[in-house]
Design a protein that fits this description.
Lipoprotein, 1 helix, alpha/beta, single chain, 129 residues, five-stranded mixed beta sheet
Length: 129
């Protein structure tokens, strides 16, 4: 009787194993970059990345260019928004459901702009290359 229960448990675990692997893991390194450009004539930019990695880079440009890498795991319900309003750049991306997402941003700003991260002074993290 014990061996029959053990056999059933092993079979049930074996049947569930593919379901646990099915959604797959999202990996930002597999994502194609997407770009969006925003006109900007302000002196201060507040970048809000809501906990997601965002490289902030000073460049010789007149506008703001955002590059996003966003990979969505199988079965995920993704949501994403990137917008600039009144000197605040909001970068959001994520997933709901039984899956995961992986996101990274790169924000290129004019060298003359003071950049804040979440309302606080910050150092620019990337290189302009």
């Amino acid at each position: 009787m014990f061996s029959r229960r053990l056999s059933r448990s092993v079979l049930a675990a074996g049947a569930l194993l593919p379901l646990s692997v099915l959604p797959g893991c999202a990996d930002v390194d597999d994502a194609a970059p997407e770009k969006k450009t925003f006109a900007f004539d302000g002196r201060t930019l507040d970048v809000r990345s809501h906990g997601m990695p965002a490289d902030l880079v000073a460049t010789d440009r007149d506008d703001i260019e955002v590059t996003r890498w966003f990979d969505v795991g199988f079965g995920a319900d993704p949501h994403s928004e990137w917008r600039l309003r009144a000197g605040r750049l909001d970068l959001e991306a994520g997933c709901e459901g039984f899956a995961n997402c992986d996101t990274r941003f790169r924000v290129e700003v004019p060298k003359s702009v003071t950049v804040l991260r979440g309302g606080r002074a910050t150092k620019l993290t990337g290189s302009g290359k």
